[in-house]
Structure formats: structure tokens, C-alpha cells
Here is the input.
Amino acid sequence: MVITKSPFLLYSDGNGNIFEDTGLYAAGRAGWDAFPVPAEEWIELPDGGNLYELPGRRGIGIDVTTGEMRLCDKGWAVAAFIPPAHTGLYLAAFETLPDAPTLPLFCYTAAGWLNEKTYVPAVRIEKDIRQENAGYDDQQIERGTKHLLSAYSDNRLVKHLMENCCMTYHCPAARNFSLGRWECPVPTSPACNANCIGCISFQPVEETIVSTQDRLTFKPTAQEIVEFTVPHLMEAPFPIVSFGQGCEGEPLLMWETIREAILEIRKHTGRGNININTNGSKPDAVKALCEAGLNSIRVSTNSARKHIYEPYYRPNNYQFEDIVESLKVVRDFGGWTSINYFVFPGMTDSVEEYEALRKLIMDTGLRMIQWRNFNIDPDWYMGKIGVHETGEMLGVKQLMDLIHDEFPQLRFGYFNPSMERIKGDFEHNFAGGGN
Ligand code: SF4
Here is the structure.
């Protein structure tokens, strides 16, 4: 439902209780600045979303009488964690007090309250329902977990996926694997050749925040990978097996094992999409995987600009140009190419980034942008990469419209597409798509 009036700012009493301040309308943040949010860009907080209090931070709102921007001094600022398939258009607007703790690795989208409901400035960018909160039945997941653990009792990777990812971290992909459907995660690498500031699987001891999951501690064999991925590809609806998960380092460092696994998998079945989520650092390894039968690649990036990418990824022995080359390699093999684009309002929609993104799309023949919310403390991120001025901004919604108008063949989404979607009816061949 489109609202015609701005929602009120939310604040917390510091004990987890959240209230609306009817003296202030909620504002949004882009870069270092606060802005009014157009009424039509607010949507109800989707199911699966959460509200967070932001300790040591005061919310910035718009005075309902004067129209002036001012701080809310009634409590701490509040932000929303919006669920997968939705992209946030504005960050929560707040002022950070000295000694405020660094925020953990979640996304901090603006939030407001109106007519007994919570609203966020966001768009549903993906129709596929594979990570819909309502689609997970805990009893079925427990049964599926028990079945897989007994069916693959000697398989360390299935043990890791079921005991850690599914039952401890509640990873949506691992839960779907336990239910025998859609995208199955295949982590392989205990190491990485990048040092991302916001790495979700490894944070240096000197940092005050922790990684959201621990990194894999062993190197699976090709046989361990093949054992459970072949049945998944043969039996699951819209099957995908994806190397490169949040609980590991960089899968391209394990390319020989992955190549051996892909060759063996394709001896048993031609069904489904064999995908790799990667930092794209090793185009030669990507070439070897394409020769073996890799179908699609998703390269993660916080920017299409080298001078924004490298201070964040802090790469070892590779550079921005290598990730571009990896996309070109898969294109040249006729594979599907996506970027896992970390959306940060004020940075992603800056005019400079827009021009760089256009160039990346044209240079690589990119097929899809997965518009992902950037799970990071905004001040910490911009401080760490040394960005004090973001320049002219377009607005995330306008950026999406401009890119869509110029590149109508380029797909927008949030998840890796199945082969049925890549080769067939893109608008319907997905979980919940009716086909
Ligand atoms: S590429 Fe992935 S695993 Fe490596 S440091 Fe970055 S987020 Fe972490």
C-alpha cells in the first residue's frame, strides 16, 4: 500500500522498547547526509524484517511543524533490517555520539511508523520466494536435516551444512537444501585472497565487531561434493548448486577440487545450474571451471570503481581489473554473469558510480545485477575507505530506473537464477513463479 504521508521517526529507550516520536517525521540517509524520503518510496516492513536500536546514536528527523531537520533526543536511533528479495533505498538517518560502539554486520535501512505499522524505503527487487520467511517449516527442516545426516554419515561437508549452517546459523540456502529444493550451498575454501573490511566469515581480533559465521576449517574432497550435489541437481525443483558461501573464504582458491567435482557431476546429470559466488580474483581459474562445465558466476563488489573497490576488498595479489576479466571469461563461454552489488545509498547512486556501472555493464555484457543490501556500519565503512564526500547523487530508485531503461535486457534480482529461468521464461521459472 502506497502511503501519502511520511511516517513518524522511531526511537528506542535503550532497553529494546521502541516508540514513535509524533513530533518528527522519519528521514533517510545517503552518504553522510540526511534527506526527506518521497512518500511513494515507503513500503510496509516485509515479513522477516527486524528493527534494531542503534546504541550511541540519535535519530535525525523532520520537525512536523517547522519542517526543519533536527535530532530526536528521546532515545537511541532505530533502523530496519529488511529481508532478502528487497533493496533498501535510504539508510537510517542518525548522528553518532563519541564512544558509540561499531555496529555489527547487518544492514541499517531507514524505518518509520504510521497507522500502527512499520514502514521502510525499499523495493521488492526479486519475485523468487526461495528465502521467504513464511516458507520455512522448522519440523520439516529438522526431518530433512536428520535424513541428510544419516544418508551422508561420512560426509564432512553435509555435516557442516546441516549442523552449523542449517541448525545453528539458520542459513536460508542450507535450510532449502535440507528441504530438497532450489539453491544448495557448497562451501569449499577455508582461506581467502582478499581482506574485506566487512567480511562476514572472518574479522581480525583488533576489530570490535565479530563475523556473523565462522569460516570452514577443512578442505572438502571432490567426492564429498559430488555425493550430495548430484542427487540435488537430479531431484530438486529449479536446482542450483552454488560454490562460494558466507561461511568460507574464496572458492577460486579451491578451483582444482571444484573443477574435478564439476566434471564428475556432469557425468551423472546435465540438469540444473552449477554456479559460483566469488570475488572474481582469478580469471584463469574461472576459465578452467567454464571448460569443466560451470554455468554461471556471481562476482561480489561494493563498487564498479577501482578506487572504491580496492580500499574495501584489500586484495592480495589481484586487482579490480581481474574481477572484470572473470566476468568477460564467463560471457565468452556463453555462461550467465551476475554481480552481487552491495547497495550503499549515497555511494551506489552517486553520478560517478553510475557512469562506472554503465561502463562495467557494456564492457562485460553483464546479464544480471543482484541489488544486495550492504550489511555494514555506515560510518565505519565510509571512514575505513576514506570517503568524506560522495558527490552528486541520483537516488537508488532513479539509478535502477536509468539502468533498466538503458539496458532493458539486463535482469534485476536478488538471487542466482535457475537454468530454467536462464534458458526459459525468466518472468515465471522460479520458486513461486507459477511454473
Ligand atoms: S572475499 Fe568474501 S571471504 Fe574473502 S574477505 Fe571478502 S567477504 Fe571475506
